[in-house]
Amino acid sequence: MKVALVYDRVNKWGGAERVLLALHKLFPKASLFTSVYHTKKADWAKVFDTKTSFLQKFPIIRSKHEFIPYLMPIAFENFSFDGYDLVISVTSEAAKGIITKPGTVHICYCLTPTRYLWSGYDEYFAHPAIKALAKPTVSYLRKWDKQAAQRPDHFVAISKEVQGRIKKYYDLDASVIYPPVTLPIPKTNTKRTKKASGYFLVVSRLSQFTKYKRIDLAIEACNILQLPLKIVGEGSWEKELKSKAGPTIEFLGNVTDEELITYYQNSKALIFPAKEDFGLTIIEAQSFGKPVIAFRGGGAQETIIEGKTGYFFDQQTVAALVTALQDFDKFSFDPKASRKQAEKFSEEKFRKQFLSLVKKLI
User: Fold this and answer.
1) What is the CATH number of the domain that holds 106?
2) What is the pTM assigned to this prediction?
3) Which listed residue, 230, 231, 271, 342, has the most CB atoms within 10 A of its CB?
């Protein structure tokens, strides 16, 4: 069976990229099609035979793709998948819009319907002038996006949250296969503790285009309470966030998996202020027996057992997170419960569910 993987762009590292590597284990000979490939920023992709679009000819676009969204439909529609039996698009934007011929099965593993067109539209275009200038482009892309969503033979959502968005924006049904946690989990002490020592942790991309992750809330709340907070990740939002950070906040940049494991192990809890599509870092933290302090919204509600593996706050405000951090030490969290919850999102379970779906469709 000849298989191809398709991804919006290969120029960063995060949860979606871990999914691609998990799929690579299932289909090690699969080529990876993408709009642009930034080799220095995406060293993880060297395991793939990567095929790029015409946009690769323009070096600036490899890292500034956000400014040419109107070209993405053309980039993906120009790929040929003749001779492929199975194509799997992993996408939150245009990769689902590839064109395949009869005889080729296209599974779309949907990270979310294009956020800046749908669920996050008001956040991305909050400024009236920007909204007005972008209106023609948004109108064109919304029309194309709905048409492109009809092309896959089957939609798979990464969470029930995303499953609901697919129904809402595309009027399509989707099955759910949760992404796997792929960090190696060493054996650690499972003794029940009431108060863990250490720092609070945030693991996230820090891009201007991912401000919905609300890392600013974690910084401001920890400033007020003078709590130690370590932030893993980097991006164009980083400079602004650093300007808000007090002396107890430390920015670590991008780290290796080995370093990330150590930061998880030595942390007190993960802070997760976003309304996310899924939130793979929530599972990673729990896999190390760590609780999560999360906003009650999005995929977090599917992955945290309240009072056992984490604690929710109900408003995306500094005051609500401050209260949650103050209340946190009143609760006792069992590392065993967190690890057991994380096991529901194992790589082995992902493999079985995905291969079962392929078997049904091929």
Assistant:
1) 3.40.50
2) 0.91
3) 271
